[in-house]
Write a structure and sequence with these properties.
By secondary structure, the protein is an alpha+beta fold. Helices cover about 15% and strands about 30% of the residues.
């Protein structure tokens, strides 16, 4: 079921108990995903109403791929699923926050790393450079899991 409560009154949206997510003009809502245990940000993705409903119904993170134009259940190819332990929304219900327990090898990123946020933006004096964040080693080889791209 993808029918969520209609967005009528701002006071109800901000203080009420009805879940009335606000999707953008493309029918999407941003989803921030963190490790429920450590609090580490693992990834950011988009959800449409169908992906959000599926995630809430079965507790496994499902997203909408803008590049492929379809739903993707996290880990459907890699086995790196995200079990949703808690789902939250912000004050005006236009962002979703999923607290998850990673399953598999613990990699949330398609590059084979634990987090999609595996690089630090460095000092501009020598031009903006990216350096690996601590703990950013690959947990699997994406070519072995997804094939050549």
């Amino acid at each position: 079921m993808t029918d969520f409560t209609a967005r009528d009154d701002a006071a109800d949206i901000e203080e009420g108990t009805e879940f009335a997510p606000k999707f953008d003009a493309d029918g999407l809502i941003p989803a921030i995903v963190t490790d429920a245990e450590s609090g580490e940000v693992l990834m950011f993705a988009w959800m449409n109403a169908e992906a959000l409903a599926a995630t809430l119904a079965d507790g496994v993170a499902t997203f909408y791929s803008r590049s492929r134009g379809k739903l993707w259940r996290k880990g459907e190819t890699s086995g790196e699923t995200l079990k949703v332990l808690e789902a939250r929304t912000d004050c005006d219900q236009d962002v979703i926050w999923l607290k998850v327990a990673p399953r598999g090898r613990g990699a949330a990123c398609h590059t084979g790393r634990r987090s999609c946020f595996y690089r630090i933006i460095g000092d501009a004096r020598n031009g903006w450079r990216l350096t690996p964040a601590p703990g950013s080693e690959r947990l699997f080889d994406p070519k072995e899991v997804y094939g050549e791209s």
